[in-house]
Amino acid sequence: MTLPVSIDELRRFPALSDLSDSQLHWLLERCELETYEAGDYLAHAGDTADRMLLTMEGTFHARVDGSESPTFIIAAGMISGLLPFSRMTKFPLSTRAQTPLRVLSLHKRYFTEMYQELPELIPKLVGILTDRVRETTRATTQNDKLAAIGKLSAGLAHELNNPAAAARQASGSAKELFDCYRETLDRLASLCSSKGIYDDVRALEARASDAVNHPIPMDSLTRSDLEESLLTWLEAVGIEEPWRVAPAFVDAGFTAETLAEATAKWTPEIRELALYRVAAAAEMEQVLAQMKNSTTRMSDLVNAMKDYSYMDHAAATEIDINNNLETTLTLFSFRFKSTIRLIKIYASNLPKIQGHGGQLNQVWTNLIDNALDAMEAQENRTEPGQLWVSTRRELEEIVVEISDNGPGIPEDVAAKVFDPFFTTKPQGEGTGLGLDTVYRVIRQHNGGIRFDSVPGKTTFSVRLPIDAQS
């Protein structure tokens, strides 16, 4: 019988180097030699896993469909494919030759006989299997996190653009207002005959600024009436383009009567400059508040993404679960529009737990993303989507619940949701790693996860022990 390769070639495998010639001969008699050109597929994700592969020459990659980076790189001298004691029934990854490739293939029907003929090899194959599980866990966790960040990035860029545009517009307005403010300062200083008049102008300005920072709610009809009466008074005292300053006086809490009373003792020229100055001060307070809100929003988004990306680089530390959830929800803010409402019910004074914040961010990301996807994909929806995020303490555990009013999880899918590489999303949109990652992270934190689902309500409940040591 002609052997597919020589015994000396087979002995180059570290796992096979200690086997006798007769044992290697037994193995070679049952192997088939397969050759591939660069670009050829050895297997597609979902194909039946029924053989162990020994790479004689060349390199091939195993990767999640749609991913640009490989999960595994298998080179000459490495054993892969279906290994003894593995529970794998289908190849979870697509494998493709990167160079011309020669591979020995051993069908699983020989595994039982191999246990008897090559007992020294079995522990080494188990070790390879253990290393592969460890590497798969590391790689899939990282790939899943990168996929989540990539999915968030487009919406995050849009969310950053809105406050950036608002800050840019406000800064332009601030320059114009400051120029007006500075000009009236110089002219008032030369016209005021006494320090008392100037102090009265500054007091009116301070009153306006304080009112802008502590606004009193009013309905649109009341506001319209106030603006109309102010327009009439401003025109009567000779203010040019009164419609430009009337809204600022309303925001500053003035009426035609209070302005008339405050400016009654001033000359027309001083009154005109003072009114422009007070209006500019009020508008400047609004512009500065807008700039502060916009830049704070931008900073919050950047910090949330930084926390999300780097928190898991640190060792286990104390985590505030409510804040941890808020970090993740901040990155999803662009998806909570008119069609989906976010409802947060946080328990106060929750104790902190020991854990890895970045890993828990991944848990919340996957659960929230799945809930939002389910609601957004639901056809013939008659009411807005609702996402509930709640926390509470039960004895020595913290419970986090994430619920949605989407279509629910079908019974035939429910049993598989935590299986690695299982996904109901279209090709390229889901890796099937999300809930597997969730399950593993929660287990690493000594916690548990379960879900209940009926049409119109799905709830994932995560329990984390308060004294968990991760």
Mind sketching the topology for me?
Layout: H1 7-10, H2 21-30, E1 31-36, E2 41-43, E3 51-57, E4 59-63, E5 72-75, E6 79-81, E7 94-97, E8 101-107, H3 111-117, H4 121-191, H5 195-213, H6 220-236, H7 246-251, H8 256-262, H9 268-310, E9 317-319, H10 321-331, E10 340-345, E11 353-355, H11 357-377, E12 385-394, E13 397-404, H12 411-414, H13 434-444, E14 448-454, E15 457-465
Parallel strand pairs: 10-12
Antiparallel strand pairs: 1-8, 2-7, 3-6, 3-8, 4-5, 4-7, 9-11, 12-13, 13-15, 14-15
Short overview:
This protein is of the alpha+beta class and 470 residues long.
Unreliable residue stretches? 426-433
Tally the structural domains: 3
Q: What class would the helix/strand composition place it in?
A: alpha+beta
Tell how many strands the DSSP assignment holds: 15
Name the helix and strand elements from N-terminus to C-terminus, one letter apiece.
HHEEEEEEEEHHHHHHHEHEEHEEHHEE
Q: At the first level of CATH, what is the class of the largest domain?
A: Alpha Beta
Q: What is the CATH architecture annotation of the largest domain?
A: 2-Layer Sandwich
Helix content: 40-55%
Task: Tag the structure with descriptive keywords.
470 residues; alpha+beta; Heat Shock Protein 90; 3 domains; five-stranded mixed β-sheet; four-stranded antiparallel β-sheet; 13 helices
